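Practice problem. Given the sequence and the SMILES for flavin-adenine dinucleotide, write out the predicted structure.
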Amino acid sequence: MRVAIAGAGLAGLSCAKYLVDAGYTPIVLERRDVLGGLVAAWKDSDGDWYETGLHAFFGAYPNMLQLLKELGIEDRLQWKEHTLIFNQPEKPGTLSRFDVPDIPSPFNIIASILRNNDMLTWEQKIRFAIGLLPAIVRGQKYVEEMDKYSFSEWLKRQGVGERVASDVFIAASKALTFINPDEVSSTILLTALNRFLQERYGSKIAFLDGSPTERLCQPIVDYITEGGGEVRLNAPLKEILLNPDGTVKGFLLRGLNGKPDEVVTADFYVSAMSVDPLKVMLPEPWQQIEFFQKLEGLEGVPVINLQLWFDRKLTDIDHLLFSRSPLLSVYADMSNTCREYANPDRSMLELVLAPAKDWISKSDEEIVAATMIELEKLFPDHFGKDNPAKLLKSHVVKTPRSVYKATPGRQQYRPPQKTPIANFFLSGSYTMQRYLGSMEGAVLSGKLTAQAICESLPEASASNLQTLTRTPATNAATA
Ligand SMILES: Cc1cc2nc3c(=O)[nH]c(=O)nc-3n(C[C@H](O)[C@H](O)[C@H](O)COP(=O)(O)OP(=O)(O)OC[C@H]3O[C@@H](n4cnc5c(N)ncnc54)[C@H](O)[C@@H]3O)c2cc1C
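Answer key:
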């Protein structure tokens, strides 16, 4: 059976991979000339990679880790020390660490919090621990109910002081969703905290050993093509064609470079596009269906990724850092963290600028200049003195609409993978799965879509489903 999938981000590729496992023939159609969607990367004329985003993998990513294992590429993740590292803006150039000892959860996380005295007072630690109790005791149900509050509101309701919000959670909120705690749904941070408290290595961070396009997406494509499927770049979906009964008749692809448009037909169809392009492509009859109308409640959030190459080494830290800068979110010196980008003599910083709504329309020069000013606070020894580090080159990648904007009340708008249209399914990290807008969420959504397709044909797919359930989708939220 053929399945046409629009979008070769991680969700579309994961969906195709699991459909191959279940005996289907997927054909993935990607609009751009590059794989990966939000993890896409390009090589510049010097042969250096530049990426859509700095991507950190977590121990609490079971579906991603399983996928890498199934592809035989789990050794491409470079695991870092189990610690979270924050800059201290009030003491430029200094760092505060939450070192997580190798003892069972949640004691490892509790110990890391108790041992850190730079960022939280004892009173704040105790208040925060008490505030978290309902989430620990009542679990995911409570976490979902809290979607009506922003994280700042939730902290206030739990009686946790303002400083906790300003110190630790601005950094966490920006890193997870590219927005601040006064805008973000408390479900997001509580979900992440719950995972970290429940899984011994949940908060352990890894980096891929090279570009996501080549080192992560290409092996999935190879697996799909070896299994009889196909992945086509430069194949933009232009229109979803319907049968008289409202089911999908075909995907109409826009012909590029003077070529005519083309219709691709299949037994099933999947949109693995992000939510914004899907919304504008909904066929007119579907726009009357409540299921699709709800998509209006979701939209992508802007974010900017910078890569800066310097004439010297700025740091030897081999880890993700939370900048705690108003302009920036997380960053890393990729010349230390990533094997393919390694350089013993020169740093290459990769930094995420968020929230980015006021910056997305500014020029690259303005964005780089503002970032350089922030670097004076992060690396005072190397900037603003007689012999400041020299910026050799830079790349700025702006994404005006990235993952869905996780403001309060969004959970109710996130659709399941199965739609009211019998032969049409959704995939993407914005669809309902417990891992929010992340790589893990994208991979899990793809797997759930493949399962939903198998389940829609019970008699034909019983054996196929067995294949898939040998690698069950880990998704307590939908279980
Ligand atoms: C700066 C940044 C940093 C991030 N950091 C992290 C991180 O540290 N950890 C983490 O887990 N996640 C991170 N993420 C989030 C993660 O990248 C995404 O959640 C995930 O990659 C989304 O995958 P997706 O397949 O759901 O969507 P997308 O990647 O958006 O894929 C959708 C695909 O559909 C294609 N498409 C759109 N329209 C059409 C059309 N008409 N026809 C055909 N194809 C079409 C697009 O080109 C794209 O390839 C980050 C994202 C960004 C932008």
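Check your answer against the key. Residues 105-200 form one domain.
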